[in-house]
Amino acid sequence: MPDTIPVDSVGLITPQVAHFDTPLVLACGQTLPNYQLVYETYGELNADASNAILICHALSGDHHAAGYHSMEDRKPGWWDSAIGPDKPIDTNHFFVISLNNLGGCSGSTGPTTVNPATGKVWGAEFPMVTVEDWVETQARFADRFGIQTFAAIVGGSLGGMQVLDWSVRYPERLQAAAIIASAPKLSTQNIAFNEVARQSIRRDPQFHDGQYIEQDTIPTNGLGLARMLGHITYLSDDSMGNKFGRQMRHDTYQYNYEVEFEVESYLRYQGEAFTKRFDANTYMLMTKALDYFDPAAREGGDLAKVLSKAQCEFLLVSFTTDWRFSPARSEEIVDALIRSGKHVSYTKIEAIEGHDAFLFPIPRYMNALRGFLSRVAKRLPKENA
Amino acid sequence: MRADLQLISDWIPPNSRVLDLGCGDGALLAHLSEHKNVAGYGLEIDAENINMCIERGIPVLEQDIDQGLQNFEEQGFEVVVMAHALQQFRRPDLLLDEMLRIGKEAIITFPNFGHWRNRVHLGIKGHMPVSEFLPYNWYDTPNIHFCTFNDFRDLCQDKGLKVQRWAAVDGQLHDHWWTRLMPNLFSETAIFKVSR
Q1: Using CA atoms, how far apart are residues A345 and B23, in angstroms rounded to an integer?
Q2: What is the DSSP letter of A100?
Q3: What is the pTM of this model?
Q4: CB of B51 closer than 8 Å to CB of A368
């Protein structure tokens, strides 16, 4: 809870909702007749709508990227370290938009909202959504604001995949793309992790074929387990080691299955806390969106050919201890951009935090993002630059 | 801009694609982009330099050259440049091969270890040369493969490479009749442009 709002915070923020009544044909073939997206904005949109930055969130993220919802909030938005006045994504210059993706569980249309056709909660009936579908909804969202071209689109992990897709789906609609700790497609190992997460949810007796909300229950065991597994893959061996080592709950071994090591307690807590804020069906949808993403497949596996359509400048960032989206995966994108002659810079940040590093204000990382976006800011009309 | 970069810049054709190995703060690429419409990338591992490049909009890639350049396709660049860094790599000879796999031409500058002052240091005083230009001690120097003007010329010959141009200059990057006449003795910096 902040006693006072820090000066470099965007302050108290109220989420807003945008309704869309134009039917949306999804990649899976189904059509949503209408939908809503919950979003937040930080900073002011300038007169010619040229200073907008879109933030794309990752698997468990949402629209609340920066600031506080109330003075009682324990923590600010998930990327508060990067967004705000004089921060790398500088709200003195930019109008920042962050929305909860379609299929999410933070207020946008998704498995936890009501299907107007049946009057019941969507649950598992909610259609599969893909990265491409999200980009489509984000583009429509931009239209609503009169934003023809984004100054930049920024995202980490699954968010980076959306940025990558933006750069080739609407190449003329963004000037700069920052793709952080991401990949051009998931590795086999990544898909395997996702499948274990999904199975742990689906095999929970409380899952009820995905219609658990109707049954007034939640597959907390399955979702918690999925999160525990995911959480391990977002950290590095060293960061877990530093944080917990072999610290024990008691002075001696208890020789039972209660918490012996602190790391067990931590994981159980993380798993449980997640079930209170996140929906199991959304979690499964998001992991499927990750699995399906493979833009190069459209060109016979030739990523460079796909990226040849891009017109923006790129910044790619990876982190040394990230093994879920390792530097080599970012470098695949970098190499393809070089082959297609694109303007790209790439930096591999020394960090102990593993994949989660993209959420931390690591000075070198923040400086790179700041430097990249300061170039974008310089091109804005005088009033914002 | 550093004088050797000015010299290199004069040797690079307009509108070409350039890869700058060890691009520093991006000064050469910035100059080339501004004056010669050259598009290129710099490779760098120093954090401050990388950030400087990003800030000035020079495409920079954090990549350790000693780990290889396999990610670059054959003949993807007109010119591959390496200014004052060749002597810092594990296998300069293999690196030269790589530069000419990736680029049609390679421009290399290096400190000439055969310069008379170095010879005095080593030959008369009996110590490894330390100068304003090469300010390191033998144990902390990044320069692990010093060579002379003649050594490099011989390497090119052994590899069957064509020396398109060369320049032999003093510490201020000026060339004189004496540096041209006896480059191995009088030049402090050697500059070569080579191709297959």
Answers
A1: 13
A2: P
A3: 0.95
A4: yes
